[in-house]
Design a protein that fits this description.
By secondary structure, this protein is α+β, with helices and mostly antiparallel strands. The chain has two domains: 227 residues, P-loop containing nucleotide triphosphate hydrolases (Rossmann fold, 3-Layer(aba) Sandwich); 120 residues, Nucleic acid-binding proteins (OB fold (Dihydrolipoamide Acetyltransferase, E2P)). It is built from nine helices and 20 strands. The strands form four sheets. A six-stranded mixed sheet has the order 6-7-8-3-9-10, with helices on both faces. A five-stranded mixed barrel has the order 11-12-13-20-14. β11 and β12 form a beta hairpin. The longest helix has 16 residues. The radius of gyration is 24 Å and the shape is globular.
Protein backbone atom coordinates (compact mmCIF):
# COMPACT_ATOMS: atom_id res chain seq x y z
CA UNK A 1 0.00 0.00 0.00
CA UNK A 2 1.15 3.53 -0.74
CA UNK A 3 0.86 6.29 1.83
CA UNK A 4 -0.48 9.65 0.63
CA UNK A 5 1.78 12.57 1.49
CA UNK A 6 -0.21 15.26 3.28
CA UNK A 7 -0.25 16.68 6.78
CA UNK A 8 -3.84 15.78 7.64
CA UNK A 9 -5.46 12.96 5.74
CA UNK A 10 -9.14 13.24 4.84
CA UNK A 11 -11.28 10.18 5.53
CA UNK A 12 -11.54 9.59 1.78
CA UNK A 13 -9.66 11.12 -1.13
CA UNK A 14 -10.08 10.42 -4.83
CA UNK A 15 -7.57 11.81 -7.31
CA UNK A 16 -8.24 11.70 -11.05
CA UNK A 17 -10.36 8.55 -10.80
CA UNK A 18 -11.88 7.14 -13.98
CA UNK A 19 -13.75 3.94 -14.79
CA UNK A 20 -14.11 2.34 -18.19
CA UNK A 21 -16.30 -0.58 -19.19
CA UNK A 22 -15.14 -1.69 -22.58
CA UNK A 23 -15.06 1.41 -24.75
CA UNK A 24 -17.49 3.28 -22.53
CA UNK A 25 -16.19 5.81 -20.01
CA UNK A 26 -18.51 5.44 -17.00
CA UNK A 27 -16.61 7.87 -14.75
CA UNK A 28 -14.11 10.51 -15.75
CA UNK A 29 -11.56 12.53 -13.77
CA UNK A 30 -13.25 12.29 -10.36
CA UNK A 31 -11.33 14.19 -7.69
CA UNK A 32 -12.99 14.51 -4.31
CA UNK A 33 -12.09 14.84 -0.64
CA UNK A 34 -14.33 13.89 2.29
CA UNK A 35 -13.21 15.21 5.70
CA UNK A 36 -13.19 12.98 8.76
CA UNK A 37 -16.69 12.60 10.20
CA UNK A 38 -18.47 14.34 7.29
CA UNK A 39 -21.61 13.21 5.49
CA UNK A 40 -21.11 13.59 1.75
CA UNK A 41 -24.09 13.04 -0.55
CA UNK A 42 -23.66 12.08 -4.20
CA UNK A 43 -26.65 13.61 -5.98
CA UNK A 44 -27.64 12.75 -9.54
CA UNK A 45 -30.14 10.98 -11.74
CA UNK A 46 -29.99 7.53 -13.29
CA UNK A 47 -26.77 7.06 -15.24
CA UNK A 48 -24.96 9.94 -13.54
CA UNK A 49 -22.31 7.60 -12.10
CA UNK A 50 -23.31 7.41 -8.43
CA UNK A 51 -23.46 3.62 -8.12
CA UNK A 52 -20.32 3.19 -10.23
CA UNK A 53 -18.42 5.50 -7.90
CA UNK A 54 -19.65 3.62 -4.84
CA UNK A 55 -18.58 0.35 -6.45
CA UNK A 56 -15.03 1.70 -6.67
CA UNK A 57 -15.10 2.65 -3.00
CA UNK A 58 -16.36 -0.74 -1.83
CA UNK A 59 -14.00 -2.71 -4.08
CA UNK A 60 -16.66 -4.19 -6.35
CA UNK A 61 -14.92 -2.45 -9.25
CA UNK A 62 -11.37 -1.22 -9.86
CA UNK A 63 -10.51 2.21 -11.19
CA UNK A 64 -9.14 2.38 -14.73
CA UNK A 65 -7.22 5.53 -13.80
CA UNK A 66 -6.43 7.51 -10.66
CA UNK A 67 -6.22 6.51 -7.00
CA UNK A 68 -8.48 6.23 -3.97
CA UNK A 69 -7.14 6.78 -0.46
CA UNK A 70 -8.84 6.00 2.86
CA UNK A 71 -7.19 7.71 5.82
CA UNK A 72 -4.18 8.29 3.58
CA UNK A 73 -3.79 4.64 2.57
CA UNK A 74 -4.30 3.60 -1.06
CA UNK A 75 -7.16 1.13 -1.55
CA UNK A 76 -6.12 -0.18 -4.96
CA UNK A 77 -5.04 -3.60 -3.68
CA UNK A 78 -7.22 -3.81 -0.57
CA UNK A 79 -9.86 -6.56 -0.67
CA UNK A 80 -13.46 -5.39 -0.13
CA UNK A 81 -13.82 -7.22 3.21
CA UNK A 82 -10.55 -5.68 4.44
CA UNK A 83 -11.66 -2.08 3.97
CA UNK A 84 -13.72 -1.93 7.17
CA UNK A 85 -16.60 -0.12 5.50
CA UNK A 86 -20.26 -0.49 6.38
CA UNK A 87 -22.22 -0.89 3.13
CA UNK A 88 -25.91 -0.59 2.31
CA UNK A 89 -26.65 -1.52 -1.31
CA UNK A 90 -29.84 -0.75 -3.23
CA UNK A 91 -30.89 -4.36 -2.60
CA UNK A 92 -30.92 -5.21 1.09
CA UNK A 93 -29.15 -8.63 0.66
CA UNK A 94 -30.45 -10.00 3.97
CA UNK A 95 -30.02 -13.66 4.88
CA UNK A 96 -33.50 -15.19 4.40
CA UNK A 97 -33.13 -17.89 7.08
CA UNK A 98 -32.05 -15.48 9.81
CA UNK A 99 -34.36 -13.20 11.74
CA UNK A 100 -34.05 -9.46 11.26
CA UNK A 101 -32.17 -9.18 14.57
CA UNK A 102 -29.86 -12.06 13.61
CA UNK A 103 -29.10 -10.31 10.32
CA UNK A 104 -28.05 -7.21 12.22
CA UNK A 105 -25.95 -9.32 14.62
CA UNK A 106 -24.10 -11.13 11.80
CA UNK A 107 -21.17 -8.66 11.46
CA UNK A 108 -20.68 -8.82 15.23
CA UNK A 109 -20.57 -12.63 15.18
CA UNK A 110 -17.91 -12.52 12.44
CA UNK A 111 -15.85 -10.25 14.68
CA UNK A 112 -16.19 -12.53 17.70
CA UNK A 113 -18.23 -10.10 19.82
CA UNK A 114 -19.66 -11.81 22.91
CA UNK A 115 -23.36 -12.70 22.86
CA UNK A 116 -24.19 -10.45 25.82
CA UNK A 117 -22.61 -7.46 24.11
CA UNK A 118 -24.12 -8.37 20.73
CA UNK A 119 -27.62 -8.18 22.15
CA UNK A 120 -27.17 -4.62 23.43
CA UNK A 121 -25.56 -3.43 20.22
CA UNK A 122 -28.23 -5.00 18.02
CA UNK A 123 -31.04 -3.51 20.10
CA UNK A 124 -29.47 -0.05 19.89
CA UNK A 125 -28.94 -0.37 16.13
CA UNK A 126 -32.55 -1.42 15.54
CA UNK A 127 -33.83 1.42 17.72
CA UNK A 128 -31.73 3.89 15.73
CA UNK A 129 -33.57 2.97 12.50
CA UNK A 130 -37.04 2.87 14.11
CA UNK A 131 -37.57 -0.86 13.62
CA UNK A 132 -39.77 -3.14 15.75
CA UNK A 133 -40.64 -6.83 15.41
CA UNK A 134 -37.04 -7.89 14.86
CA UNK A 135 -37.93 -11.55 15.56
CA UNK A 136 -39.44 -11.78 12.05
CA UNK A 137 -37.74 -13.22 8.99
CA UNK A 138 -36.98 -10.94 6.00
CA UNK A 139 -39.89 -12.29 3.93
CA UNK A 140 -42.25 -11.18 6.70
CA UNK A 141 -41.03 -7.60 6.57
CA UNK A 142 -41.79 -4.85 4.04
CA UNK A 143 -39.17 -3.61 1.58
CA UNK A 144 -38.85 -0.41 3.63
CA UNK A 145 -38.28 -2.40 6.83
CA UNK A 146 -35.67 -4.63 5.17
CA UNK A 147 -33.76 -1.58 4.00
CA UNK A 148 -33.74 -0.23 7.55
CA UNK A 149 -32.38 -3.57 8.78
CA UNK A 150 -29.62 -3.31 6.18
CA UNK A 151 -28.76 0.15 7.53
CA UNK A 152 -28.67 -1.16 11.11
CA UNK A 153 -26.42 -4.06 10.03
CA UNK A 154 -24.03 -1.67 8.29
CA UNK A 155 -23.60 0.49 11.40
CA UNK A 156 -23.77 -2.01 14.27
CA UNK A 157 -20.04 -2.84 14.26
CA UNK A 158 -18.83 0.78 14.23
CA UNK A 159 -17.36 0.94 10.70
CA UNK A 160 -14.74 3.57 9.92
CA UNK A 161 -16.71 4.65 6.85
CA UNK A 162 -20.31 4.14 5.72
CA UNK A 163 -21.23 3.71 2.05
CA UNK A 164 -24.97 4.00 1.40
CA UNK A 165 -26.50 3.50 -2.05
CA UNK A 166 -30.06 4.91 -2.13
CA UNK A 167 -30.72 3.80 1.49
CA UNK A 168 -34.10 5.56 1.54
CA UNK A 169 -35.29 4.29 -1.82
CA UNK A 170 -38.13 2.20 -0.36
CA UNK A 171 -39.15 4.64 2.38
CA UNK A 172 -42.42 6.27 1.35
CA UNK A 173 -45.22 8.38 2.81
CA UNK A 174 -44.93 9.54 6.40
CA UNK A 175 -42.04 7.13 7.07
CA UNK A 176 -39.61 8.88 4.72
CA UNK A 177 -39.15 12.19 6.62
CA UNK A 178 -38.74 10.20 9.85
CA UNK A 179 -36.08 8.00 8.24
CA UNK A 180 -34.25 11.01 6.80
CA UNK A 181 -34.12 12.42 10.32
CA UNK A 182 -33.05 9.00 11.67
CA UNK A 183 -30.15 8.73 9.20
CA UNK A 184 -28.96 12.23 10.08
CA UNK A 185 -29.31 11.51 13.81
CA UNK A 186 -27.45 8.23 13.40
CA UNK A 187 -24.63 9.99 11.60
CA UNK A 188 -24.30 12.60 14.33
CA UNK A 189 -24.44 9.93 17.03
CA UNK A 190 -21.79 7.67 15.47
CA UNK A 191 -19.60 10.38 13.98
CA UNK A 192 -18.77 7.98 11.15
CA UNK A 193 -17.66 9.42 7.83
CA UNK A 194 -20.51 8.69 5.44
CA UNK A 195 -20.94 8.82 1.68
CA UNK A 196 -24.54 8.44 0.51
CA UNK A 197 -25.92 8.30 -3.02
CA UNK A 198 -29.41 9.53 -3.89
CA UNK A 199 -31.39 10.99 -6.76
CA UNK A 200 -33.76 12.85 -4.39
CA UNK A 201 -32.74 16.48 -3.95
CA UNK A 202 -34.80 16.95 -0.79
CA UNK A 203 -32.99 14.07 0.94
CA UNK A 204 -29.59 15.38 -0.14
CA UNK A 205 -30.26 18.90 1.10
CA UNK A 206 -31.60 17.65 4.45
CA UNK A 207 -28.80 15.16 5.13
CA UNK A 208 -25.55 16.43 3.71
CA UNK A 209 -22.66 18.41 5.07
CA UNK A 210 -21.50 18.56 1.44
CA UNK A 211 -23.27 17.64 -1.81
CA UNK A 212 -21.44 16.42 -4.90
CA UNK A 213 -23.62 16.76 -8.00
CA UNK A 214 -22.81 14.06 -10.57
CA UNK A 215 -23.77 14.27 -14.23
CA UNK A 216 -22.59 12.10 -17.10
CA UNK A 217 -19.95 10.41 -14.96
CA UNK A 218 -18.34 13.66 -13.83
CA UNK A 219 -18.65 15.94 -10.80
CA UNK A 220 -20.53 19.09 -11.74
CA UNK A 221 -20.18 20.87 -8.39
CA UNK A 222 -19.31 20.19 -4.75
CA UNK A 223 -20.74 22.53 -2.10
CA UNK A 224 -22.65 22.75 1.15
CA UNK A 225 -26.43 22.44 0.58
CA UNK A 226 -27.16 26.13 1.06
CA UNK A 227 -24.29 27.25 -1.16
CA UNK A 228 -25.26 24.76 -3.86
CA UNK A 229 -28.86 25.97 -3.87
CA UNK A 230 -28.04 29.68 -3.87
CA UNK A 231 -24.91 29.60 -6.05
CA UNK A 232 -25.07 26.76 -8.59
CA UNK A 233 -22.35 26.87 -11.23
CA UNK A 234 -24.47 25.43 -14.04
CA UNK A 235 -28.00 24.65 -15.11
CA UNK A 236 -27.36 20.99 -14.29
CA UNK A 237 -26.33 21.85 -10.72
CA UNK A 238 -29.26 24.24 -10.33
CA UNK A 239 -31.86 21.64 -11.38
CA UNK A 240 -30.24 18.85 -9.38
CA UNK A 241 -30.99 20.52 -6.05
CA UNK A 242 -34.40 22.10 -6.64
CA UNK A 243 -36.77 23.82 -9.02
CA UNK A 244 -35.37 26.60 -11.18
CA UNK A 245 -36.51 28.75 -14.08
CA UNK A 246 -34.01 28.37 -16.93
CA UNK A 247 -34.37 30.79 -19.83
CA UNK A 248 -32.17 31.03 -22.93
CA UNK A 249 -30.70 34.42 -23.73
CA UNK A 250 -27.72 36.47 -24.91
CA UNK A 251 -25.37 38.60 -22.83
CA UNK A 252 -26.02 42.24 -23.60
CA UNK A 253 -23.71 43.93 -21.08
CA UNK A 254 -21.52 43.07 -18.07
CA UNK A 255 -20.65 45.48 -15.26
CA UNK A 256 -17.52 45.48 -13.10
CA UNK A 257 -19.30 43.58 -10.29
CA UNK A 258 -20.06 40.61 -12.54
CA UNK A 259 -23.73 41.44 -13.04
CA UNK A 260 -24.84 40.62 -16.57
CA UNK A 261 -27.65 42.22 -18.51
CA UNK A 262 -29.29 39.46 -20.53
CA UNK A 263 -31.64 39.76 -23.48
CA UNK A 264 -33.92 36.74 -23.12
CA UNK A 265 -34.86 34.82 -26.25
CA UNK A 266 -38.51 35.46 -25.33
CA UNK A 267 -37.97 39.25 -25.36
CA UNK A 268 -37.44 40.92 -21.96
CA UNK A 269 -34.07 42.20 -20.77
CA UNK A 270 -33.14 41.02 -17.25
CA UNK A 271 -30.17 41.05 -14.86
CA UNK A 272 -28.34 38.32 -12.95
CA UNK A 273 -24.95 37.46 -11.47
CA UNK A 274 -22.57 35.57 -13.74
CA UNK A 275 -21.38 32.09 -12.72
CA UNK A 276 -19.05 31.92 -15.75
CA UNK A 277 -16.77 34.40 -17.47
CA UNK A 278 -18.97 35.55 -20.31
CA UNK A 279 -18.62 38.29 -22.89
CA UNK A 280 -21.11 40.51 -24.64
CA UNK A 281 -23.08 38.58 -27.32
CA UNK A 282 -22.28 35.20 -25.72
CA UNK A 283 -25.26 32.81 -25.56
CA UNK A 284 -26.26 32.04 -22.00
CA UNK A 285 -28.84 30.48 -19.68
CA UNK A 286 -30.57 32.75 -17.18
CA UNK A 287 -31.58 31.06 -13.91
CA UNK A 288 -33.82 32.28 -11.08
CA UNK A 289 -35.46 30.22 -8.34
CA UNK A 290 -39.29 30.34 -8.16
CA UNK A 291 -39.31 31.56 -4.54
CA UNK A 292 -36.90 34.42 -5.35
CA UNK A 293 -39.42 36.11 -7.65
CA UNK A 294 -41.69 38.87 -6.34
CA UNK A 295 -45.07 39.30 -8.01
CA UNK A 296 -47.64 42.10 -7.99
CA UNK A 297 -50.89 42.85 -9.92
CA UNK A 298 -49.41 45.97 -11.55
CA UNK A 299 -47.53 46.91 -14.70
CA UNK A 300 -43.77 46.41 -14.79
CA UNK A 301 -43.27 50.18 -15.20
CA UNK A 302 -45.08 50.72 -11.91
CA UNK A 303 -43.22 47.95 -10.05
CA UNK A 304 -39.77 49.45 -10.59
CA UNK A 305 -36.47 48.97 -12.38
CA UNK A 306 -35.82 45.41 -13.55
CA UNK A 307 -39.47 44.34 -13.42
CA UNK A 308 -40.97 42.27 -16.25
CA UNK A 309 -44.58 42.10 -17.47
CA UNK A 310 -46.24 38.66 -17.31
CA UNK A 311 -49.62 36.96 -17.55
CA UNK A 312 -50.90 34.43 -15.03
CA UNK A 313 -51.59 31.04 -16.63
CA UNK A 314 -52.42 29.05 -13.52
CA UNK A 315 -52.64 29.46 -9.74
CA UNK A 316 -52.42 26.53 -7.34
CA UNK A 317 -53.04 27.20 -3.65
CA UNK A 318 -51.20 24.56 -1.62
CA UNK A 319 -52.05 25.43 1.98
CA UNK A 320 -49.92 28.43 2.91
CA UNK A 321 -48.01 28.25 -0.40
CA UNK A 322 -49.13 29.54 -3.78
CA UNK A 323 -47.64 28.10 -6.97
CA UNK A 324 -48.12 30.30 -10.03
CA UNK A 325 -47.34 29.51 -13.65
CA UNK A 326 -46.78 32.65 -15.74
CA UNK A 327 -46.30 33.55 -19.39
CA UNK A 328 -43.45 35.96 -20.08
CA UNK A 329 -42.57 37.72 -23.33
CA UNK A 330 -43.20 35.82 -26.55
CA UNK A 331 -44.00 32.51 -24.90
CA UNK A 332 -41.62 31.50 -22.08
CA UNK A 333 -43.17 30.00 -18.95
CA UNK A 334 -41.95 31.03 -15.51
CA UNK A 335 -42.78 29.35 -12.20
CA UNK A 336 -43.29 31.52 -9.10
CA UNK A 337 -43.75 30.28 -5.52
CA UNK A 338 -44.95 32.67 -2.84
CA UNK A 339 -46.24 32.23 0.73
CA UNK A 340 -49.50 33.88 -0.30
CA UNK A 341 -51.08 35.08 -3.55
CA UNK A 342 -54.43 36.65 -2.63
CA UNK A 343 -56.60 37.67 -5.56
CA UNK A 344 -54.35 36.15 -8.23
CA UNK A 345 -56.21 34.40 -11.04
CA UNK A 346 -55.60 32.93 -14.49
CA UNK A 347 -55.51 35.55 -17.25
CA UNK A 348 -54.44 38.35 -14.93
CA UNK A 349 -51.73 40.81 -15.99
CA UNK A 350 -48.94 41.06 -13.39
CA UNK A 351 -45.34 42.17 -12.99
CA UNK A 352 -42.46 40.13 -11.61
CA UNK A 353 -39.02 41.11 -10.32
CA UNK A 354 -36.01 39.80 -8.40
CA UNK A 355 -32.69 41.00 -7.03
CA UNK A 356 -29.81 40.52 -9.53
CA UNK A 357 -27.87 38.71 -6.80
CA UNK A 358 -30.64 36.09 -6.61
CA UNK A 359 -30.35 35.15 -10.30
CA UNK A 360 -27.50 33.33 -12.05
CA UNK A 361 -26.21 33.51 -15.62
CA UNK A 362 -24.61 30.35 -16.98
CA UNK A 363 -22.69 29.47 -20.11
CA UNK A 364 -24.84 27.91 -22.85
CA UNK A 365 -28.11 28.80 -24.45
CA UNK A 366 -28.75 29.20 -28.13
Amino acid sequence: MQRAHQTEDPALRLTGVALRRGRDRVLGDISLEIPQGALMVLLGGAGSGKSALLALLTGEARASEGEIFSDGVGLGRTKPHRRGFGVVAQRDALFPRLSLAENVAYPLRLRGVKASVRGRLVEAALDSVLLTGAHRRPHQASAAERQRVALARATVFGPRLLVLDEPLGDQEGEVRPAMVAAVRRLHLLLGTTTILATRVAMDAMALADQVAVLHGGRIEQVAAPGALYDNPVSAVAALACGEANLLAGTVRAVDEDGVAQVALACGPVVEGTMSWTLKVRDPCVFCVRPERIAIAPVRAADMGAGAVDATVLEVLHLGDLARLRLLVGSGAEVLVKRPMAPGMRAGQAVAIAWQPGHARVFEGGE
